[in-house]
Hints:
Elements: E1 3-8, H1 13-24, E2 31-37, E3 43-49, H2 52-59, E4 68-74, E5 89-90, E6 96-104, H3 107-116, H4 126-141, H5 145-155, E7 158-166, E8 172-178, E9 183-186, E10 191-194, E11 206-209, E12 214-219, E13 225-228, E14 238-240, H6 256-262, H7 264-272, H8 286-290, H9 292-296, E15 300-305, H10 307-324, E16 328-332, H11 333-336, E17 347-353, H12 359-370, E18 374-379, H13 385-389, E19 392-395, H14 408-428, H15 433-454, H16 457-467, E20 472-477, H17 481-496, E21 499-504, E22 521-525, H18 532-544, E23 548-554, E24 566-570, H19 578-596
Parallel strand pairs: 15-16, 15-17, 17-18, 18-19, 20-21, 20-22, 22-23, 23-24
Antiparallel strand pairs: 1-4, 1-10, 2-3, 2-4, 5-6, 6-7, 7-8, 8-12, 9-10, 9-11, 11-14, 12-13
Bound molecules: fructose -6-phosphate.
Amino acid sequence: MCGIVGYIGTKKAYPILIKGLKRLEYRGYDSAGVAMISDCGELNVYKTKGKVDNLTDYCSDKDVTGCVGIAHTRWATHGEPSARNAHPHYSRSQNLAIIHNGIIENYADIKMQLQTKGVEFKSDTDTEVLVQFVEYIMVKKNLPLLEAVQVALHQVIGAYAIAIVDKREPRQIIAARKQSPLVVGIGQDEFFLGSDASPIIDYTDKVVYLDDGNIAVIRLGEELKVLSILGKEQQLKVSTVDLNLGQIEKGGYEHFMLKEIFEQPECLKNCMRGRINVEGNHVTLSAIIDHRRQLLGAKRIVIVACGTSWHAGLIAGQLFESLCHIPCEVEYASEFRYRNPVVTKDDVVIAISQSGETADTLAAIQLAKQKGAFIYGICNAIGSSIPRATDTGTYIHVGPEIGVASTKAFTGQLTVLTMLALCLASERKTISEELYRQMVRELTLIPAKMEQALKTNEQIALLAPIFTYARNCLYLGRGYNYPLALEGALKLKEISYIHAEGYPAAEMKHGPIALIDSEMPVFVIATRDRLYEKVISNIQEVRARGGRITAIVTEGDTQIQRFADHIITLPDTLECFQPLIASIPLQLLAYHIAVCKGKDVDRPRNLAKSVTVE
Ligand code: F6R
């Protein structure tokens, strides 16, 4: 949710911290701040409400000297978004400053105890409680920062990634993680900190992903040290980051979201590379080779995910049932984790997450693990928490997704899930050889068909202004296209702030049809498939009530134009692959409508890219 950056070395910290914050703004952008130990040894904290640009304006006449600093971009959990609640937070003496991502669940108890000892608080945050607690321990027990952090974290319940500086120990940053991501970059006589590797990759490709319960002791002129909370030294696991700058910059597009929509054909090729053979007739996933017994023996598949990833799961659920004949349940991770669900060791639980950090999905994994299930992760962010918490998995390899609205991750997830279903079906012999080959072949053709679908961009940009007046929209689809209707509605909601609902088209007559009038745009995914004729009937029902219909149809369709106000035409493909192609006009519709309404497409209000809190 929040973004953390840190630097200690011989360069000026401020430009490195600000550049890093901009990279991490996707994680939260309601306020931002920096703390730096200046050349004269002062610990200066500057913070502002709003985006990082507000912070740089504010700092333009401030002392931003120094080679040590920490910085933060926030997504509020405790306390309204304001400069007062922004991080970093000072301790009472102003000797310490802290940044934090996560939630300290027992902060109210600790705060009360500290208040009885006379400690006063300047913000409403759980984070300030932590830094005051650390300082209280330092003074009371006469401990240096590292030991005091260890003692404090021992008593803290909750999730955190933190970094603390102490102006009396200016050559050191102490960082720690539990259930919130934190990466340390190792350079030449310098170290970097980040919530992910994106603020680090300009300077070094050597990183250490901290594990839960790790404390990093980052001292200038010394080797990086990683300890457990109890102080036991941990073995350093240095990884090489495989990320380039082009992947995290806009590359000439006006917004990351548009760039990411247009990247999809290339992303899907990357996703399939090395997994589908060059002849295009066979899929292999290493996870299935390595864990054959558990995966082929699955009596049931349970998919856990949130948001867009859950929509990908709903589509995949239909594939697992129809191709592999394995019963499949698709659950919101946030509901699953609190339900005491029936899960056995014969179940395979598939966790889908772009960020690999979603707190509810992680908790659902832990619960399923305790119940003995085999856990398979499908993630995008390499080295994130979910891939590390699962028994096996497959990365979608679509590159960093920066736009808050998920686009390429959705189609990447669908591609991996389809490959998984094909592998399992083939091994379990629940699919004919002919259908298997046809499907694998068609999957390899999807990137080219997506290119064709992207050609609807101009048409959609012209259509978009018509919908900016709408206060509500309906999205309808059936079969594999029903979860896509949910996804289309979610995209519109989150970036244009227009209320939208996705519905299975046939459910209309059981209630929502009452909403239809000439002011309600209805988007229908009506591609040619088994349910095509039924969808036409549903379109007619809407039409008869004066609804304004925009239909997404397959090329060559001659019927639907008689009933629809607008038609968007897509190349034909197999029924189960239609969501891969039809997601493109839905993403473009949401994008252009939001742009027409002047909304901040990449950073919609109240949202963050990575939801590391419940
Ligand atoms: C919607 C969106 C969210 C995420 C959800 C899960 O565009 O991005 O609904 O899909 O927060 O996130 P991940 O996939 O990172 O677990």
